[in-house]
């Protein structure tokens, strides 16, 4: 596979997505129970191959046959957290990208501590909402309300930058505008729709898609992340346009359809990625 | 938030729902694996905030930040049952409402025993189908067939009353007519559609919605429960009316849409709640 | 219930399905987390009754009240594998059919070993994709890529026959053409659509439907399996024909609708089952 040289552009977005489809990466997901169905369906619709495996005696072998790892902190328990750490360390050993979704970070002490333990396992990318990123960065420990965000994404940008620098990773903050940063550069993505927040695990699924996109541009995880955000958000916009009603049930169906059906012209006309700093 | 004075009426139904949306209660759900996706989506669509967390070391803290707790007995295991009891006791300590869904009570001795243990933790509301309520009340231990009801809701009304009196809780029996009782008063709800029984965990999700509704009228759990039943049932009726086909796949999509989109006029014209005793 | 004498025909297909609906078998499913929602919905839509229960202290009792058992090896862990073996042995003791879905067999050593342990528990039917059947038969241990098939179903026919003979069971290999064999006879099914492979756990759900169909023709598990494959595949074809878009989100909705709504004329005109050897 030729190396891709991504630009923060809609053109590049389509190009990367096609490279992902050509590669059909196996994304090993250790995720919360609520998200499993939609996450697997999002990956399949977008042209990737999902695998859910969490057993302590199997996760390292699964990382070995996968292209990337997704670790999501929802519905955690001690044994699952142990498996997540094992898998993350194996991914780093093997030089495979892994992406952390710190669901509900800040909601409880156990949750926050577990997220920090995973952060110490050197993720390639961290994706959360503003409250989660704020909590994870230690910039704020309050204001998190279950797994929904109570802060705007812009409020968490400084925390995201600090996190990115301190942990040498890419940090993405989802919101009305999505921000992606390596600590210095900031790329903004203006795709998506508010109704997505009424579909459970939409954000979790998006993080899995980021893992898939990074496999096709491993040298450019910042732009790969931004491109995944744009594709997912645009699929929601297009889906909503075609849905019979502006409801979360219809949007979920149409989102999956669009992740399979969106064409080059739509992506080139609709992806809104820009360098902000 | 001003106190709501509910009446068994469609007017009151809309008013309570709006109060729920204004409050956006965080409903902590410890539920079966099958139900997690649709339950979270039902809560989100209706204007609430779901959180699934089951770890023994985290459930008490989660109850602390939640408005209500939902405990569902499906796909049980010893560790999960322990977490459910811990969470339920914490809810009682903190004066927060909690709702029990005794899925499959009567199907196996372990199941029945576990349901009884939770019943002893003083739920605010219990919601089940007729067979489950009959089994739970000890009025009958047979006739339960997996998690589907084999008895009509009317058959379980006396058992429901006994249960309500003995355990000082509200008991709701779902069926063609839903009955809600505190042991003396009985309110009936005539919304819903038979096709709902072909959507897995529709009943489980409804119980979670009851938990949300009770948070907005904590002094009137009987009427809050009836109102939740009416809203959910009406959303199914309206959804079916708008669905392209009368199939369970389409109904599930439209149900979620309607929980987000139903307007005041529809609720006022369609909710069918009446005092029966 | 009168005994059914199945033929490899579309007529027979409808007749068996009606017998299944009349029986409304309770199918006890011990399956992976990803599949639970769609599997339960597929069984309900097709006229069966699902029950998910996995606890070591409850599975044997659940087998006792069920008509059939489905064991799926996805998202395995030591405790769940133990429960699966316990349930499978109980099913054999009670003379109830049980069906094995060796998800991801060959992907990791633990996975393959666990699948072989279940195979030793004498399943009535084994259903997998070509790679899984090849791995399970020991005909090949490589080439398995997560839970997706990388081999064509025809490539696994010999392995399927060997497996069927050695383990005295029916083996079904899913693919563009589905093959079902008892080691000697081979029946082919030409229903289904490629887009089904983009719906997570569609295959898992199909295996659960096989378990349901076998309950209504326990003396003819080979044909019952072929008939289940035809009904499921045809529901997907019909669903796709009616879906607003050829996407996996819409197909999933329409598939569930069609499993509820398909009529006799459609099944008789569309089921494509033939004796191949």
TrEMBL record, chains A, B, C:
GO MF, any single term: magnesium ion binding
CDD domains from the UniProt entry: THZ_kinase
Source lineage: Eukaryota, Viridiplantae, Chlorophyta, core chlorophytes, Chlorophyceae
Cofactor list: Mg(2+)
EC assignment: 2.7.1.50
Gene3D superfamilies in alphabetical order: 3.40.1190.20
Catalysed reactions, as listed in the record: 5-(2-hydroxyethyl)-4-methylthiazole + ATP = 4-methyl-5-(2-phosphooxyethyl)-thiazole + ADP + H(+)
One Pfam family per UniProt: HK
Keywords carried by this UniProt record: ATP-binding, Kinase, Magnesium, Metal-binding, Nucleotide-binding, Thiamine biosynthesis, Transferase
Record's protein name: hydroxyethylthiazole kinase
NCBIfam families attached to this UniProt entry: PRK09355.1, thiM
GO biological process: thiamine biosynthetic process; thiamine diphosphate biosynthetic process
Pathway(s) this gene product operates in, as recorded in its UniProt entry: Cofactor biosynthesis; thiamine diphosphate biosynthesis; 4-methyl-5-(2-phosphoethyl)-thiazole from 5-(2-hydroxyethyl)-4-methylthiazole: step 1/1
